[in-house]
Design brief:
Distance between the termini: 22 Å
Number of helices: 18
CATH class: Mainly Alpha
CATH topology: Cytochrome C Oxidase, Chain A
Strand content: under 5%
CATH superfamily: Cytochrome c oxidase-like, subunit I domain
Largest sheet: none
Length: 535
């Protein structure tokens, strides 16, 4: 084990990447635990675990959303896998700003302590992750809980910005001269595009919540309607950040999925240029559709028509990616754990996308706004899509870093339990939401009790799958079974350049990159070198 003192001073990208993954996993488990408390409360009629405390229920919702978005998926897919894979995929020994990398890592636990404190100080921050006025103003939350919540967002935002700047500069300025951007992994492209999005939208959120703080403590009235402010202004500012945030979460998963299919299939990615343009198009169009979250604010008809049409437009580049994945999956055997997880990702992402097309219609959205239909939709796209991508990334990188493998039979069982469990949680939400069940309520009508039971059963299955996965990864590491060096592990620069010890720096790649070709294949010298690392 690496001591905290070593972690405090380290500038090693591999070690920082592993620390990001460990921290993100721990924070994600804490956020998942909060969702378990919510599901237990909703499993029966009347008061259950929370004794009818609606404020505590809202606090759990708020903390759950923040932890899963800002503390789990974003740092894991961007800074975690990014630090481990980006330098090696580009053929560079380190990230370009190692000390900034270390700073971003240690801002994470600081922000986590602040957000947990905000949940227990006074009545807790029960504003939901959107922090809408007037609920977030002093008249509704007068204590320090919302202030700590906002400071936590600033801290985790700085962490995300430091990682984004590091990723962009590393990709632009340190890659080898004969590696053009069209020849690097699609995961590199996804990280760069996501980094640009972060740099553009995080300052907007920072400004919006800073104005909220001044409304609470400095007698300004940006959002306070009683003093002439406009709460809808905050919604515009928040969703200018919030909708690109959706793609900040999912674009690295897109890149990871494409990279895994490519390496497991030992062939060139299908429609590489189209996949790159699709990701860029998704990111660009995502800046112009923010107000489809605000159809119920009294928007005029022309604006509703525009935002509905622009939202539907995003389906075009997304479809390009989905069909490209399907073409590549036809050429890959569904026998490996990572490919099964990628297949599960494509399934749940398609389901989430179909339900999103329904919500793009402004008239339907007004009816379904703030119902469980919306909860089911964005969990299919973000929660399940990101979760499957994260687990696939862990299974992909674990053998490369540790030199050990897991048991395929148990892997398949775990994946099937996960697939059934996640769909059992969120598919019934579409049905109950279409029936009018509002979200953020700690009790339901008795007509929805059967759906709540199915959802609760699903979360138990997900817990079982997570436990199986953790047990297998831990056992495989301790057993130290040697990895088989077949073609799955020699078709990418990452596997060729990564040393057996994940905590040591990457070897200088000049002597190895001469074997790199546009087809991503290597000579026997590279294969023998990779074999020597695991002997």
């Amino acid at each position: 084990m690496v001591s905290l003192i070593v972690l405090w001073w380290t500038c090693n990208a591999k070690l920082i990447g592993l620390a990001y993954l460990y921290l993100a996993t721990i924070f994600g488990v804490s956020g998942f635990t909060m969702s378990w408390f919510m599901r237990v409360e909703l499993a029966g009629l009347g008061e259950q675990l929370l004794f009818g405390d609606q404020q505590l229920y809202n606090v759990l919702i708020t903390s759950h959303a923040m932890l899963m978005i800002f503390f789990f998926i974003m740092p894991a897919m961007m800074s975690g896998f990014g630090n481990l894979m980006l330098p090696v995929l580009l053929g560079t020994p380190e990230m370009v700003f190692p000390k900034v990398n270390n700073l971003g890592l240690w801002l994470m636990p600081l922000a986590y302590m602040l957000i947990i404190s905000s949940s227990w100080i006074d009545e807790g921050a029960g504003t939901a992750w959107t922090i809408y006025p007037t609920l977030a103003l002093s008249s509704s939350h007068g204590g320090a809980s919302v202030d700590l919540f906002i400071v936590s967002i600033h801290a985790i935002g700085l962490s995300s910005l430091s990682g984004a700047i590091n990723i962009i500069c590393t990709a632009m300025h340190t890659k080898r001269s004969h590696l053009t951007m069209l020849h690097v992994s699609l995961y590199v492209w996804s990280l760069v595009i996501t980094g640009v999005l972060l740099i553009l939208v995080v300052p907007v959120l920072a400004g919006a919540i800073t104005m909220l703080v001044t409304d609470r403590h400095c007698n300004t009235s940006f959002y306070d309607v009683t003093a002439g402010g406009d709460p809808v202004l905050y919604q515009h500012l928040f969703w200018v950040f919030g909708h690109p945030e959706v793609y900040i979460i999912i674009l690295p998963v897109f890149g990871m999925v494409s990279h895994i299919i490519h390496t497991r299939g030992s062939f060139n990615p299908f429609n590489t240029l189209g996949m790159v343009y699709a990701m860029i198009s998704i990111a660009v169009v995502g800046f112009f559709v923010w107000a489809h979250h605000m159809f119920t604010t009294g928007m005029d008809v022309d604006s509703r028509v525009y935002f509905s049409s622009a939202t539907l437009l995003i389906a075009l580049p997304t479809s390009i990616k989905v069909f490209s994945w399907l073409v590549m999956l036809q050429r890959v055997a569904l026998s490996t754990t990572t490919v099964l997880l990628v297949t599960g990702f494509v399934i749940v992402f398609i389901l989430g996308g179909v339900t999103g097309v329904v919500l793009a219609n402004s008239d339907i959205d007004i009816v379904l706004h703030d119902t469980y239909y919306v909860v089911g939709h964005f969990h299919y796209v973000l929660s399940l899509g990101a979760l499957y991508g994260y687990i696939a990334g862990v299974y992909y990188i674990h053998p490369i870093l540790s030199g050990t493998t897991t048991m395929d039979a148990l892997n398949r069982v775990s994946i099937m339990v996960l697939l059934v469990g996640t769909n059992s949680i969120f598919w019934p939400m579409h049905l109950t939401g279409a029936s009018g069940l509002p979200r953020r309520m700690s009790d339901n009508a008795d007509v929805f009790i059967s759906s709540s039971g199915v959802t609760t059963t699903g979360i138990v299955m997900v817990m079982l799958s997570v436990l199986i996965t953790c047990a297998m990864l831990s056992a495989s590491t301790t057993m130290s079974s040697n990895i088989t060096l077949d073609h799955h592990h020699i078709t990418t620069t990452m596997s060729t350049l990564t040393t057996h010890d994940p905590l040591t720096a990457c070897p200088h790649p000049d002597s190895l990159l001469r074997h790199y070709t546009t087809t991503h294949t290597y000579s026997n010298d590279c294969i023998q070198y990779m074999g020597s690392l695991h002997e």
